[in-house]
Write a structure and sequence with these properties.
CATH architecture of the largest domain in chain A: Orthogonal Bundle
CATH superfamily of chain B: P-loop containing nucleotide triphosphate hydrolases
Strand content of chain A: under 5%
Largest sheet of chain B: 5 strands, parallel
Number of strands of chain B: 9
Structural class of chain B: alpha/beta
Helix content of chain B: 25-40%
CATH topology of the largest domain in chain A: MetI-like fold
Strand content of chain B: 15-25%
Largest interface: A-B, 35 and 37 residues
Radius of gyration of chain B: 17 Å
CATH topology of chain B: Rossmann fold
Shape of chain A: globular
Number of helices of chain B: 6
CATH class of chain B: Alpha Beta
CATH superfamily of the largest domain in chain A: MetI-like
Oligomer: heterodimer
CATH class of the largest domain in chain A: Mainly Alpha
Distance between the termini of chain B: 35 Å
Shape of chain B: globular
Largest sheet of chain A: none
Strand order of the largest sheet of chain B: 6-7-8-3-9
Number of helices of chain A: 24
Helix content of chain A: over 70%
Chain lengths: ~575, ~210
């Protein structure tokens, strides 16, 4: 017996190939890129005269005076940012899940997630800088400062501001992943049982729910770790400069007109990959240790307490992290309209639209380019995702755990490690430096997010609607187009919005695949960082945020309008 | 029509080697065969096999013959077997009228003709003027009637019922049950009812087959 939709058509059947194609699109470039990094790292790049395997590039790398510092920075920022984000997220869930406050947090999540990393980082920078809003608010009445203090807060050598910038953006991401995991486990039951046995809510949650939740969010956590270790745009804005983080230094070498530095850049990219793998292994060991201690803690039977303290602390942490983004954006808004604004005034002397007017002409083509790239990449990702999910149904191609790992390959293998190689390959094949190349590379990163956000709702659809429609005379395609997709309009639009936001946020892929010739809002905004003109930066960062946010708004309003008289679809 | 009725010929359905369903029977036009059994006994699996949507995880053998035609290898949409589930499963994105139009065969041509046909159908189930309503705003009994009518409009040659009355309260259950069986008898449709409710079996009045 074949599944109901597998046979009967004489047309060439493309659908069964969709999963394979999708995996190829995600994993192929990563593998090719890593190979493209590997060869020059060991001195092999015939086009630049490298024909023999040597370790010269590695020797150069380890002779570079900044190597220790840059490597340590990469590891510490990654581990600390990931630990803090995970801690905040699990404390919030432990202390608040199921409460009214939690639903407020849930609702605030999507807009916070849609804020691009670069915009959030600029916002945070303008808050915490010596001349930022926080210092202004406390001056001179509290601090006595009448000029910005000469302290290195931004781009501090320890990478603390970089870590802060990462945490405020990773908390919403991990929280979203945790919520998805929580909805699959009957958490309320487990916690209520624990509470009936006399456990305090927080310890009850950590003892009964957390282990199962963590098993589900492990891959996202790994992605956060790898991302935090190798992020470029946030590091360019908030990270240390002399030396910068390893990833930033690699980009400098890549962009150097001296092409022979490509060997060094490739070796460094490989070293970065090794650091990420090492950190992941370290994290895994940490997991095992925590699990061991956790078991002993569970076996001890201690009921725990301190619920109120944890509630307070976690809410404070969540609020600070959300406020950093919200006030950051608000700060950008004020700066973009600011006239003369001297320290320590909390607000500018006057407001004007001058900065916006002056840059409007330059903004439009960049907005257009950004939208084209994001739209095409999202459409490709959406099409492939739907084809995969439909193929899964029609042909019984059920993905296993390994397929899930495939989805995370582009998210865990650091961008700098394989994009470096991809660009090296692209230069000598002449495939880079245009919009198509940028779209192709964006698709690699958009695809996993679109898939992850659409898979659950698509699979949760009640298949009996399909049976009924078939029995009423609809074909397989008829069921898909006339019943399933319309019913799933809201999750499809949400997935598209997620994909859109991911594409808009991409910095390194745009820069490398576009060879610096394709300009999006993100590359422009980050390029402005070194100039330090806060008004212009604000204009670009705000535009970037608005463009990323718009699809989320559409994903809420379009179904609300289209299905305004359809109560049954209000919560899909 | 040679040999009218629904014939289930040596139907065996297995999962992981275990036999879930083993059934041979025939249902004459207007008659009802009731299949009873606890949940998980494979009742719904049997129906999925007959309508052609059985999951690939099952292995099944045997033939389904409807009015002399072997429909075992036909795709579901060509079998002309109607089904009603426990839930009404009205398409939530379509209005009541559009739900009925989804069922109505395309052989009824022309917008006006189709609209008239649907208005008549709504009238038959005491829901005149409901065409533009959101199905979600209907009561349980009203939804059940729309689901029944949607299926009848697709002009099925046999009727499968998957515990379709169990969600309704006692009063409505009798009414809907009578309506369904009357319609089936009037149209001369063989009916296969799966249920765990003895009252359903008694109301159906036909032979009872028990799965375990």
């Amino acid at each position: 017996m074949t599944p109901p939709c597998a046979s009967t058509s004489a047309r060439p059947r493309l659908l069964p190939w969709a999963p394979l194609l999708t995996v190829a699109i995600m994993v192929g470039p990563v593998a090719a890129g890593v190979l493209g990094t590997l060869a020059p790292a060991f001195g092999v790049l015939p086009a630049l005269g490298g024909t023999e395997i040597t370790l010269d590039a590695f020797a150069m790398l380890f002779d570079w005076p900044g190597i220790t510092r840059a490597s340590v920075l990469s590891v510490t920022t990654g581990l600390i940012a990931t630990t803090l984000s995970l801690l905040v997220v699990s404390l919030i869930c432990a202390a608040w899940s199921g409460s009214a406050a939690f639903r407020v947090i849930e609702r605030a999540l999507s807009p916070l997630l849609s804020v691009p990393h670069a915009a959030a980082a600029f916002g945070l920078a303008f808050l915490i800088a010596p001349s930022g809003w926080i210092a202004r608010a406390a001056s001179p009445w509290l601090t006595g400062w009448d000029r910005p203090p000469d302290v290195l807060i931004l781009q501090d050598p320890q990478g603390l501001s970089l870590i802060a910038g990462l945490v405020v953006k990773e908390v919403p991401f991990l929280l979203l992943m945790t919520l998805a995991a929580l909805s699959q486990i009957r958490t309320a039951q487990a916690r209520d049982t624990a509470m009936a046995l006399g456990y305090a809510p927080v310890s009850g949650w950590f003892k009964t729910v957390f282990p199962r939740v963590y098993a589900q969010i492990r891959l996202p956590v790994y992605a956060v770790l790898a991302f935090s270790m190798t992020v470029i745009d946030v590091a360019l804005i908030l990270g240390p400069t002399t030396p910068p983080t390893l990833a930033v230094q690699i980009l400098r070498w890549m962009n150097d007109p001296d092409l022979s530095l490509r060997f060094l850049a490739s070796a460094a990219a490989l070293w970065q990959l090794a650091l990420v793998i090492g950190a992941l292994l370290l994290w895994r060991v940490g997991e095992i240790c925590v699990a061991w201690m956790g078991r002993r803690w569970v076996a001890s039977g201690r009921r725990g307490g301190g619920t109120r303290t944890v509630r307070l602390v976690s809410l404070l942490a969540a609020t600070v992290s959300a406020a950093a983004i919200v006030f950051g954006l608000f700060g950008l808004l004020v700066w973009s309209f600011a006239g003369f604004w001297s320290f320590p005034d909390a607000l500018p002397n006057g407001f004007s639209t001058r900065t916006w007017m002056r840059h409007a002409m330059g903004l439009w083509p960049v907005i257009g380019e950004t939208l084209i790239i994001a739209t095409v990449a999202t459409l490709i990702a959406l099409l492939l995702t739907l084809a995969c999910l439909e193929a899964e149904d029609r042909h019984g191609l059920k993905p296993g755990t390994r397929a899930l790992w495939m989805l995370y390959v582009p998210l865990i293998v650091p961008q700098i490690a394989f994009l470096t190689g991809l660009q090296t390959l692209a230069i000598f094949t002449g495939l880079d430096g245009n919009r198509t190349a940028v779209i192709a590379v964006h698709t690699i990163f958009v695809l996993p997010y679109v898939f992850l956000s659409l898979a659950d709702p698509f699979r949760a659809w009640d298949a009996r609607y399909g049976s009924v429609a078939r029995a009423l005379g609809a074909s397989c395609d008829g069921v898909l187009w006339r019943v399933r997709l319309p019913m799933l309009l809201r999750p499809i639009l949400t997935a598209a919005a997620v994909g859109f936001a991911v594409s808009i946020g991409q910095f390194l892929p745009t820069l490398l695949a576009g060879a610096g010739r394709v300009q999006t809002l993100t590359t422009e905004a980050v390029a402005l960082a070194s100039g330090g003109d806060r008004r212009v930066i604000s204009v670009y960062a705000l535009t970037q945020t608005a463009v990323a946010f718009l699809p989320f708004a559409l994903a809420v309003f379009v179904p609300a309008i289209v299905w305004r008289n359809r109560k049954g679809l209000r919560h899909v | 029509m040679s040999d009218p009725g629904l014939i289930l010929q040596n139907i065996t359905i297995r999962r992981d080697g275990r036999v879930l369903v083993d059934l041979s029977d025939r249902i004459d036009p207007g008659d009802v065969l009731t299949v009873m059994g606890p949940s998980g006994s494979g009742k719904s699996t049997l129906l999925a096999y007959i309508i052609g949507t059985l999951d690939a995880g099952f292995t099944a053998s045997g033939r389904v013959i409807l009015n002399g035609i072997d429909i075992t290898d036909l795709p579901p949409e060509q079998r002309r077997v109607g089904i009603l589930f426990q839930d009404e499963l009205l398409f939530p994105h379509l209005s009541v009228g559009e739900n009925l139009a989804f069922g109505l065969r395309p052989t009824v041509k022309g917008r006006a003709a189709r609209r008239d046909r649907i208005e008549t159908a709504l009238n038959d189930i005491w829901l005149s003027g409901f065409a533009d309503r959101d199905p979600e705003t209907l009561s349980g009994g009203q939804k059940a009637r729309v689901a029944l009518m949607r299926m009848l409009l697709s002009d099925p040659k046999a009727l499968l019922l998957d515990e379709p009355f169990s969600r309704l309260d006692t009063e409505r259950r009798d009414m809907i049950r009578t309506l369904v069986f009357d319609q089936a008898r009037a149209k001369g449709l063989p009916v296969l009812l799966v249920t765990h409710d003895h009252a359903d079996a008694a109301a159906a009045g036909g032979p009872v087959h028990t799965l375990d």
